[in-house]
Known about the structure:
Blueprint: H1 9-32, H2 40-56, E1 80-82, E2 91-93, H3 96-110, E3 120-126, E4 129-136, E5 139-145, E6 151-153, H4 156-159, E7 176-184, H5 187-199, H6 208-216, H7 221-226, E8 230-239, H8 247-256, E9 266-268, H9 271-283, E10 292-299, H10 302-308, E11 310-311, E12 314-315, E13 318-322, E14 327-339, E15 344-356, E16 359-365, H11 369-373, E17 393-399, E18 403-409, E19 434-436, E20 443-445, H12 452-462, H13 475-483, H14 494-506, H15 520-532, E21 535-537, H16 538-544, H17 552-562, H18 565-574, H19 587-593, H20 599-611, H21 613-623, E22 627-629, E23 645-649, H22 657-666, E24 670-671, E25 681-684, H23 690-698, E26 701-703, H24 705-712
Amino acid sequence: MTEIEDLTLDEAAAELERLAREMAEHDRRYYQDDAPEISDAAYDALRQRNRAIEERFPDLVRPDSPSLKVGTEVSEKFAKITHALPILSLDNAFSDADVEDFAARLRRFLKLGEEAPLAITAEPKIDGLSLSLRYEGGKLVSAATRGDGTTGEDVTRNARTIKDIPGTLKGDAPDVFEVRGEVYMTHADFAAMNERQLAAGKPLFANPRNAAAGSLRQLDSRITKSRPLHFFAYAWGEASVVPGETQTEVVAAIARYGFKVNALMQRFSDVAGLVAHYHAIEEQRSALGYDIDGVVYKVDDLALQKRLGFVSRSPRWAIAHKFAAEQATTVLRDIEIQVGRTGALTPVAKLAPVTVGGVVVSNATLHNADYIKGVGQGGVTLREGRDIRIGDTVIVQRAGDVIPQVVDVLLDKRPADAGPYLFPARCPICDSHAVREDDGVVTRCTGGLICPAQAVERIRHFVSRNAFDIEGLGEKQVEFFFKAEDDALQVRSPADIFTLKERQSRSTLKKLENIDGFGPVSVAKLFAAIEERRTVPLSRFLFALGIRHVGETNAKRFARHYGSLSAFAADAATAVLPVEKKDRGNEAWQAMNDIDGIGGVVAEAVVEFFAEAHNREALAALLDQVTVLDEVAVVDASSPVAGKTVVFTGTLEQMTRDEAKAMAEALGAKVSGSVSKKTDLVVAGPGAGSKLKQATTLGVEVIDEAGWFVRIGRDAAPTQTAAEPPSDQAPGVPAAEADPKDPA
C-alpha cells in the first residue's frame, strides 16, 4: 500500500472508500455472522490506516467512515431494542508509550499537573459478545446485543438461560438499572463442545468468541440453554440511581447484586502501575481459561468521566491496550493427514520452523478439507477465497495461545508450480475409503475394524461392558497387546482376542504369565473370560462392531428388525444408496432406511462399513471364532399383528409414541418409520400428513388409534395430560442421536 504521506487527494479518497467498504463487510461477518475471516490484529491495522488517512485529509472523512461507526446493523432475524444510552467502542493502544500518551491527554484535558492524583482502573478485555441487561424493580425485563451501538438485537429469552445472569437482582438495587458486560465461553467448555460436534460429525466452531456469539444469537432459546455460556459484568447503562461515585464502587455494587465481575480488575494511581498490571495479565493470559485480547483502562472517578465526555465513537476516559498479535510468516512445506481415534482425517501443516509468541512452531492445524479450500462453517468464504497450497508462504497464528493455525496465504509469494491440494479419498494409514459425510465437514476412514489409527479405540469398544464385556481386557491391557512385537501376544483385531490362548500355547517365547503385570491366575481368568464370550447376542455383536452411529439403541433396532446377522449383512452388503433425492435406492436400502428410528445417516454408515473389503475380511475372521445368536423376540403368538409392519403417524392421544412402538413390538409387529409397499398397517391420528397420503396411494390399510386398540383386543390406555405432537421425521435424520450411549 502507498505510504500515507505519499497519497494524493484522489488516492486518499479512493482508499477511504475502499476501507469503508472492506471494514463494513468485516463488521458484518464479525457481528452478524459470528464468522470473522481476518484476525483482530489485521482489522485493527485497517482501522489505524483509515484513521491516519482521515487525520491527514480531514475534509475527506466519509459519512460511513469506520471511525464514526460502532458495531454493525442489527440482524433482521431478531426484534430490535433501542439502548437508553448508546454502547460505544473503545479507542485502542498498542504499546506502553500509547498508554503514557493516553494518561497525558487526560491530564491536559482536565488541566491536572503531574503531581495531581488521577486514579485509573485496569481490567482484562474479554473476547466475547457485548450484552446489555435492563432491570426494572430488580427484575430482568430485557437483554440486547450491542448491535450498531444505538439499537441491538432482542435476545432476552436466550439471556435468561445463562446461569451467570440473575433473573432478580440481590440487595438494594436501583429501580432502573442496566448492567453491561460480555458473554463468553471458557476454553474447557469450548473444547468439550467441539468434541461433541466432532463426535456427531458436525462442523467445529472456530473459536470460543464465535461459539459464544453464535450460541447467544439463536432463534431457539433451547439451543442457547444447551450451550455453556458465561457472563462477566463490567459496566452499566441507564440507572435511576448510580450506586457509587467511582468505577470501582459501582462494579463492586454490581457484584453485590449477584453478578460475576473480573477479579483481575485493579485501581492504580500512575501509568507504571497500569503497564505493570497489563504485562502481568499478559503473562497469565493462557492460564485464565477464557479468551482476552487486551486490558481496558478507565478513569475511576465518575465525575471526571463526565467532564472528559466522548470523542466520536469512543469515550475520552477509557482505552483498550491490545495484546500484540501472535502471528508470524513461514513456508508450508507439506500437508500431512492425521487419522484420529474416531477415524477423522485431519490435515496438519508441516512448516518451516518459526517462533510465534515465544514458541517455536513447526506444525499447525488446517482443520478440514473445506478450510484448505477457503470455505468456512456454513459455506462462509475464508481468506477472500484464497486456498492453501504446499509451498505457500503463510501467516501462522497461535489460536487461543495453544493450537497454532494457518490463517492466511501471501499470494504474491506463491510458487508458480503450486497446485491446489487434493484431499485424499483413501485413509493414509490403512488405505480404506475415506468418506465425507453429508451432514458435516469431517472426512472419515471407513476401515473401522482394521485401521491401526483407530484399532486401539475400536478394540476397547469391542470388549466394553455393553459389547462383548470381556473382563481382564481393560485400557492398559488392550494397549499392551496391541503394541506387543511378539506375534503370540499381538491383538490388533477383534478376532485376535479369540486366538490369543492358542497362539500362547504354541509359543516358544516368553509366556504371558511371566510378564510383569500378569501372572498365572490373572492369565487363567482372562482366557476363561474370553471363552465365555464366544457366543454373543446379535444386538451386542452389532454394537461391538463400532459402526458409526450404531450405538446400543440402533443395534437393538437392527437386531429386532432383521432377527439374524445373515439377514442384516445381506441388506448391508447389497444396499444401493440413492443418487438423487427423488431416488429411493434399491429394495435393500429402503428396507434398512425405513426401520423406525434409523434413517439415511445411520443406514449409509452401515452400508459404507460393509462396502469396505477390509471390514468384511475382519468380520469373517471374527465369525470363525464366535457364534452370533439370532434375536428372539418375546411376543404374543396369538397376536393379530404378529409379523406385520406397522407405521404410526399423526397425533397419538391415548398413548405416547414410545408406548405405541413398544406395544406393537411386544405383539410381534415390526414398527417402521415410513410407508412403503411392505407396510401392512398404518395407525393415523389427527394431523397425519405425508405418511397417510402415501398409504392411501399404495392401498395400505389405515385405521385410527381407537381402531388399533380394537385390532389388538385391548382397552385404550389412560389419556395423556398433553397430546404428543406429530413425529413425521425427515428422511435421513437419525432419531438415535438423542441416545447418549450411541458413539456419534
